[in-house]
Amino acid sequence: MAVSNNLIAILNFIALMCSIPIISAGIWLAAKQDNQCINWLRFPVIFIGIIFFLVTLSGFVGAYWNKQGLLAFFLFSMAFLIVTLIILLVLAFVVARPSGSYDVQGRGYKDYRLSGYSDWLRNHVTNSDNWNSIRDCISDSKVCPKLNQKYASAEQFYAAHLSPIQSGCCKPLTVCGYQYMNPTTWVNPMNPVSDADCSIWNNEPNQLCYNCDSCKAGLLGNVRKEWKKANVIVIIAVVVLIWVYLIACCAYKNAQTEDLFSRYKQGWT
């Protein structure tokens, strides 16, 4: 096997390893409680990671057994997948950049407003066609009842660093002025007309603020937070893959040159 093919095989093995963190990031995202409630957000990263794995595997086989057709397929497919991942990262950055969170004085947690997120996220995740099933999924997850077991007093709860879903769905907005009884029971709002969500809050365990805009905002806050973490892994993998691809292109070109020279030499002799 030519030296260039040896190099391509090594590079493909590195690229093969790069597909593992991409798949792992996708599995981590799919396993998150909020993403389980948004089916179409669960599997894109896993799917792309598996495709990367198969493509780089074909490149490794092509290099090891000197299959020029497989190598050409690998280089073409890898270029397409790298461009696809870059587009996905750019879109994720653009749509997830705005944040609907804001600080609340005297609280460890933040409150969330739906208008703070991008139109694309609001229209595709929390529209009326999707929200009923998402709301039921969040309710069934028992994320709110678990707070009653964790926080015994108002002081503990007010100092808690709640997740966006916990803050948006499990309690009323702070501006409403509800009096704390326990994490999921609040009474006597002082400012019931300060926000439309104030009148939607309900102490019933299957109601709470699941119909509130703040709950939708909290869901988007969780999605945004988790995708930003996953994006870091994907960015690192893409940078490595680009370098691997560029070196592999040079090695493939050298391999073709060596093969052409070898044939010319055999024909000459």
From TrEMBL:
One Gene Ontology term, aspect cellular component: membrane
Family: Belongs to the tetraspanin (TM4SF) family.
Superkingdom of the source species: Eukaryota
Membrane topology: Multi-pass membrane protein
Lineage, top ranks: Eukaryota, Viridiplantae, Streptophyta, Embryophyta, Tracheophyta
Species of the source: Heracleum sosnowskyi
A biological process from GO: auxin-activated signaling pathway
Signal peptide (residue range): none
Assigned keywords, A-Z: Membrane, Transmembrane, Transmembrane helix
Cell compartments where the protein resides: Membrane
Pfam families: Tetraspanin
Protein name: Tetraspanin-2
